[in-house]
Amino acid sequence: MKRWLGKAETTLGNHSDRLNAINIFPVADGDTGTNLYLTVRAAARALQDVPTETAALPLLNGDPHLHVVGPPLRAQNDVGAVLARAGQAAMEQARGNSGTLFAVFLCAAAEPLAGHARLSSPLLAAALNRAQIRAWSALSDPVPGTMLSVMEAAGRAAAAVDAEHDGDDSNHTLGLALDAAVGAALAAVVRTEDQLEALHTAHVVDAGGVGMLLILDCLRSAVLGEELQDQLFDGLHGYDVQAPHIHADLPRDDGVEVMCTIRLSPLDAATLRQRLDEMGESVIMSQVGGDADADGAYRWRVHVHVCDPAPAVELIRSLGEPSDLTVSDLALPRDLDGHER
Questions:
Q1: Distance, CA of 256 to CA of 280 (rounded, Å)
Q2: Is-contact 25 196, C-beta < 8 A?
Q3: pTM
Q4: How many angstroms separate the first and last alpha carbons of the chain?
Q5: Range 241-255 burial, b when 16+ CB lie within 10 A, else e
Q6: pLDDT in tens, 94-115
Q7: Which of 76, 115, 119, 142 has a C-alpha 20 to 30 A away from that of 339?
Q8: DSSP string, 54-85
Q9: Residues 6+ apart with CB under 8 A from 199
Q10: Which of 172, 256, 246 is nearest to 203 (CA)?
Q11: Rounded CA gap, 251 and 229, in Å?
């Protein structure tokens, strides 16, 4: 898991410019590559200080400064625990639509892996399936032809290999499942161009989908000890290094992106989602951690695109006290350090 996320951080850093160049959906703000890179970087760096022998996991009570150790957990012997730590860091620092959806994906994928010492084909299939379902459900208005479709295709392909081999947990079958997942992800990326009118008109594939393909190929590379498959990107429309920054020629969105973390009861969370759906677009809400506090409230990561941030921020503050509240202009893409340019 540490090799995977470290490799993904480096790879997304190298590819961020091309991902930004073809980022035209849901808004042409040219920051999908940057957002994915920053989110994966948060996940990868959360594992840098995990000791070789034991891992201290953050309490799921909303206090990032409190940690619990015990009984001692051998980090290398609990794939799910390590991935959960990375997922929570990604969720807390998620950027944009793509970053938030990947953070949801990562947190959900960790759940079936909890307590397991190694990855196997059955566990990979379970993790990818749980992750893609959670990502689809986190978005209020999910749309095919995005990274959601790529997640789903990868999950279905891994499940098919697992079923074909009757749950065999050998390394050989795991390799077959990873190959199938990446192959299906590539096919799903190619299909995105014809699934969304904006992509079809611009003659490009979906930026988030390509980013997810990169991340999955990094997983395959880390597990199998093989090189990344650079040929995957040959022929993807708009992805050649000589291609122009397509998003730059499209109308700019004048709205803003509002993101925060907030503790809410299930009823207040449902109310917030419904009201944000009425105010804006690209509403994503996902639970951060799994435990409720004494009042029955959970922590949520919230994301929305709105024309005017004031009503959205007022609504959020009326339901609770948000932390990490950010308001970013959609017309100003950010560089790899997260600064607007």
A1: 10
A2: yes
A3: 0.81
A4: 33
A5: eeeeebbeebeebeb
A6: 988 899 999 999 999 999 999 9
A7: 142
A8: --PEEPTTS-TT-EE--S---GGG-HHHHHHH
A9: 24, 25, 145, 192, 193, 205, 206
A10: 246
A11: 34
